[in-house]
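tool_call predict_complex ligand=2-phosphoglycolic acid
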Amino acid sequence: MAPSRKFFVGGNWKMNGKKQNLGELIGTLNAAKVPADTEVVCAPPTAYIDFARQKLDPKIAVAAQNCYKVTNGDFTGEISPGMIKDCRATWVVLGHSERRHVFGESNEPIGQKVARALAEGLGVITCIGEKLDEREPGITEKVVFEQTKPVWAIGTGKTATPQQAQEVQEKLRGWLKSNVSEAVAQSTPIIYGGSVTGATCKELAGQPDVDGFLVGGASLKPKFMDIINAKQ
Ligand code: PGA
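tool_result ok
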């Protein structure tokens, strides 16, 4: 991993938890040792962004799991980048596979939301990835490059092998080099998401183009602390 890229571990809590058990998880996170060269970001459900930010130690950043592309208005059910910042969260997850495949979000609106969130100063965890029925016929590259273009990996228990993750992430870095610039390719953290566990994290983290993880299920368990320390 290039020295300009910090190891990044995101915990995506998805639509899980209540104040009581999330409060316990936050207590465990606050007590955990976070390596100085690792960035840890937790994404609570929207209803708990404020709660999580108030309780989490400042060494852990908070992300929203989604947002819309305008400041305010008649958009029932949505939140804006400004609201996220008002709750002192600093990141947003956009384009997650569940947003794409359960809620039908497509590449264009995801790209617009990424642009808006970046313009408002949020860190963005932009998710791209292929489904199993796209990997099997060998169209992974086509799918992920198409998803990357307008903006510039879930829950199955099937983790990619370290070699599969490295292969796709190396190609993505190559795509950034050819389509954006060498500097952007070298400085952009490319993280892997998809059933990462305490057992699989170390070997994945050892791949040169794997700069960290977005962790779903395992981020709600004490084993998440092992994933935070995967590079140690
Ligand atoms: P998972 O979720 O670890 O439960 O597969 C991954 C993700 O949200 O990116």
